[in-house]
Amino acid sequence: MITNLINWFKPAVSKTRHSEEEIQRIYPKYRWHVLESTFLGYAAFYFVRNNLSVVSKEMGEALHYDKSQIGDILAVTAITYGLGKFVMGALSDRSDSRKFMSVGLMLTALVNFVFGSVEDYYVHLILWGLNGFIQGMGWPPCGRSIGHWFSLKERGSVFAIWNVAHNVGGGLVGMVAAFSASHWGWKSAFYVPGILAVISSVYIYLRLKDTPQSEGLPPIEEYKNEKTLHATTEETERELGTKELLGKYIFNNKFLWLFAFANFFVYIVRYSMLDWGPTYLKEIKGASLTGGGFSVLVLEFAGIGSTILMGWLSDRVGGRRGMVSLFCMIPIFFAFGVIYYNPPGALWIDLTMLGVIGFFVYPPVMLLGVAALDVTSKKAVGTAAGFVGLFGYIGRTAQAKGLGWLANNPEYGWNYVLYAILGATLLSILFLSFTWNIKPRE
After folding, report:
1. What is the three-state SS of the chain?
2. pTM of the predicted structure, to 2 decimals
3. What does the pLDDT profile of the chain (442 residues) look like in tens digits?
4. If we measure between CA atoms, which residue out of 218, 64, 66 comes closest to residue 148?
């Protein structure tokens, strides 16, 4: 049975190539299918991952969880997601993206249903940790699909468009979870997104394609007439063994390590307000439940236009993703400073600054993932993205546990939470400065 399951997940086999006329007709259509289905599918993953932070205060009050306990739940899912992204990334590079992604989304929806039906802290801790690991089945198959269907010269712009899925899913879940909880209780913040994820899982299975060859089409380099300088098409399409995949393309890649360390601090900044923003605004700035959920929407949606713009710009400057990311992190430092000094009663200023943060933080989140693809083989994109993502979610783990502890400790409180975020922002700028001249490998 296990063998049959493994075989079922294997990459779709190559089909006999279509005629040139047919290739020109269906290649653009299938490229759209891939972009659209991975976009909608990955947005749905956010519905069943970022819903907890929206109702963490209400759930904590109902079940008598303090901030440290909520922080532990957020921390465990962050580290398991990072591990899952790396492990699942390696598996996704040798799996059918359509099956891999749709099954992952279905499983995480099921975990949400169970999470909402229980009221035990340790069960919640285990379930949300499991959810994080399964969530690792989301990004890698998207990276694999886009890496196979879109060429190197398109990568920054295409990934920028696709990356808006983070903002759409992450923003809408704030409103969906808050609306559900305010009408039907905190448990519905897990049931309703779970139902939406099940529907999306079926859609991915019916719509997504694996590789061009599995549809009787040539590799993207041949279709776009963009052969690499150092390898033939046959070599770039060769499946990599585990030792070669991890050794040559991951662990011995110094550029990948540099982007990974930068991503650690960028993710602390990114998730500080996603995980704790609603609670902070409710407790310190007087926001309501729906106001806290709206803050997530503002943060996420503010990054839509900037992500596309900065992705396009990174292509225009020769693929220098690190340089563009560095310039994006500087305004974020000042925006957090304004939030720190803004007194209660002027919530619109906090929401405006969250918009500034969202506008500038999401381009680096996207670009560092693209940079991981730039400096490795397209046959290792899932693993490379998982490796850089692992460091990002170690960063999220650190902030979930660390900021929860600071907020819960009467000796420190929310002021020290803001100090920690400002420090992480400065460190992200420092590490990104070392990536200034790194460009995609030819």
Report:
1. CHHHHHHHHCCCCCCCCCCHHHHHHHHHHHHHHHHHHHHHHHHHHHHCCCHHHHHHHHHHHHHCCCHHHHHHHHHHHHHHHHHHHHHHHHHHCCCCHHHHHHHHHHHHHHHHHHHHHCCCHHHHHHHHHHHHHHHCCCHHHHHHHHHHHCCHHHHHHHHHHHHHHHHHHHHHHHHHHHHHHHHHCCCHHHHHHHHHHHHHHHHHHHHCCCCCHHHCCCCHHHHCCCCCCCCCHHHHCCCCCHHHHHHHHHHCCHHHHHHHHHHHHHHHHHHHHHHHHHHHHHHHCCCCHHHHHHHHHHHHHCHHHHHHHHHHHHHHCCCCHHHHHHHHHHHHHHHHHHHHHCCCCCHHHHHHHHHHHHHHHHHHHHHHHHHHHHCCCHHHHHHHHHHHHHHHHHHHHHHHHHHHHHHHCCCCCHHHHHHHHHHHHHHHHHHHHCCCCCCCCC
2. 0.73
3. 667 777 787 878 888 899 898 999 999 999 999 999 999 999 999 999 988 888 888 888 888 988 788 878 887 887 888 888 888 877 887 788 999 999 999 999 999 999 999 999 999 999 999 999 999 899 889 988 888 898 877 777 888 888 888 778 887 888 888 889 888 989 999 999 999 999 999 999 999 999 899 999 998 888 887 654 444 444 445 555 556 666 666 777 788 888 899 999 999 998 888 777 777 888 887 677 666 667 777 887 888 888 888 888 888 888 888 899 999 999 999 999 988 888 877 777 888 888 999 999 989 988 888 888 777 766 666 677 778 878 888 888 888 778 888 887 878 888 888 899 999 999 999 999 998 888 776 5
4. 218
Query: What does the chain come to in residues?
Result: 442
Contact between 217 and 153 (Cβ < 8 Å): no
Query: Are 281 and 349 spatial neighbours (Cβ–Cβ below 8 Å)?
Result: no
Find out if CATH 3.10.20.30 is the number for domain 25-217+254-433.
Answer: no
∠ CA(172), CA(173), CA(176), 5° rounding? 90
